[in-house]
Design a protein that fits this description.
CATH topology of the largest domain: Alpha-lytic protease prodomain-like
CATH architecture of the largest domain: Up-down Bundle
Strand order of the largest sheet: 1-2-3
Order of helices and strands: HHHHHHHHEEHEHEEHE
Helix content: 55-70%
């Protein structure tokens, strides 16, 4: 069914890097979510009112909040696909995250409202009267929500949308919530004891949990998160296709919304390489990476000495020293200047963000270790942290 909808309503559905195609996926997802959730809301609301079940009514309003979420998510995709303008030269991609956060807040508010209603039912319990038809309708609603989960999950993975992936997760929690409502209604009718308020309380808790969890993930995206290790590995693997480049460092990836990334790094090329040829290589690398990753790519050329045995030996010595301090430390941009008696080694020391030592202490400790092992060697160290 999902594949049929995609093939029917999304033109050029394989080209998911195209913002227009992403928008079509989002529109299909949004319209489907609105229609399905609104129909489920009507069915559950009628069943809940007729049976006087606060748990079923709570579950119904959970669906109407999902329909609203689909509408806002669809609007977010529409806004995020707007072209760049003078005030927003990097586009409007993060609007998808902003609208996602609005959805999260609405879900949390619905959860609190249902929480207070359920507490009231616990204080003044009423045994709901649920008919066989109501049981069948709620059972059917579970299967519909389960299909919606697979639908959202496929689209979310296809276009790598955190908002739609969150909708998939929410659909699973809805299945659990409706199942709980069914069980509570059965227990109330069978044993004559009202657990309706307790079930409503649990449903409200599930809604609150899903909303808070999704809000945290959205806030992380707005604040900025590192790219996945797999993505970084793909960058390194791509650069290996250029044998003139012996290494890269200072990799940075800025996310301005799905499909809107700016990448930069330093590429190391032997210092005796012709500067014009090196510049051509870097230019070609930037163009090729733009096509491969659909991102703006800026590469800084770093000439390094690779054919001087004395420099190579001193670099190995410096690496050995920093590994004595901390195995997780690395270095780059290594240079060496020689005097009549003393040698200066200059390099950037890369310190993991979770290192217990501060930058100044780490740099000082490494410099002292180098001095301890070679009294004629002085280290000029710049400490920094990785961005990926």
């Amino acid at each position: 069914m999902t594949n049929f909808l995609i093939k029917t309503f999304i033109k050029d559905n394989q080209n998911v890097s195209d913002p227009t195609v992403r928008g079509r996926y989002a529109t299909l997802s949004g319209i489907t979510g609105i229609i399905v959730n609104f129909l489920l809301f009507l069915v559950k609301l009628i069943v809940g009112i007729l049976s006087s079940s606060v748990a079923i009514i709570a579950d119904a309003f959970n669906n109407v909040s999902d329909a609203g979420s689909s509408l806002i998510t669809m609007l977010g995709f529409r806004l995020s696909s707007k072209h760049v303008d003078k005030e927003h030269p990097l586009g409007h991609g993060r609007m998808e995250y902003v609208t996602g956060f609005i959805v999260d807040v609405l879900i949390i508010l619905v959860g609190f409202e249902l929480l207070t209603g359920s507490i009231g039912k616990i204080i003044t319990p009423v045994i709901p009267s649920v008919s066989l038809l109501s049981y069948l309708l709620l059972g059917g609603a579970i299967f519909v929500k389960l299909w919606l989960f697979f639908f959202y999950r496929k689209i979310g993975k296809t276009i790598n949308s955190s908002a739609i992936k969150a909708a998939a997760t929410d659909s699973v929690s809805d299945c659990g919530a409706t199942s709980l409502v069914l069980v509570s209604a059965f227990l109330s009718k069978t044993f004559g004891v009202s657990v309706d308020g307790v079930a409503g309380l649990v449903v409200a808790g599930l809604i609150l949990y899903a909303g808070i969890k999704s809000a945290k993930e959205t806030i992380d995206l707005l604040l900025g998160t590192p790219p996945t290790p797999e993505f970084i590995e793909s960058i390194y693997a791509f650069v290996k296709n250029y044998p003139e480049i012996v290494g890269i460092h200072d990799v940075m990836v800025h996310d301005y919304g799905p499909g809107r990334q700016i990448m930069s790094f330093h590429a190391e090329i032997p210092s005796d390489y012709n500067v014009n040829l090196a510049h051509e290589i870097i230019d070609k690398l930037e163009r090729d990476m733009h096509k491969e990753f659909n991102a703006i790519v800026t590469v800084h050329l770093d000439p390094i000495e690779v054919n001087d045995e004395e420099v190579n030996a001193m670099r190995a010595f410096a690496i050995d020293c920093i590994k004595e301090i901390d195995e997780s430390f690395t270095l780059h941009d290594f240079r060496m200047t020689k005097g009549d008696k003393y040698v200066n080694v200059i390099f950037d020391l890369v310190i993991p963000v979770d290192c217990k030592m501060d930058d100044e202490t780490a740099a000082k400790t490494v410099a002292e270790k180098i001095k301890e092992r070679n009294e004629n060697c002085f280290a000029v160290i710049k400490a920094e942290h990785p961005f990926v």
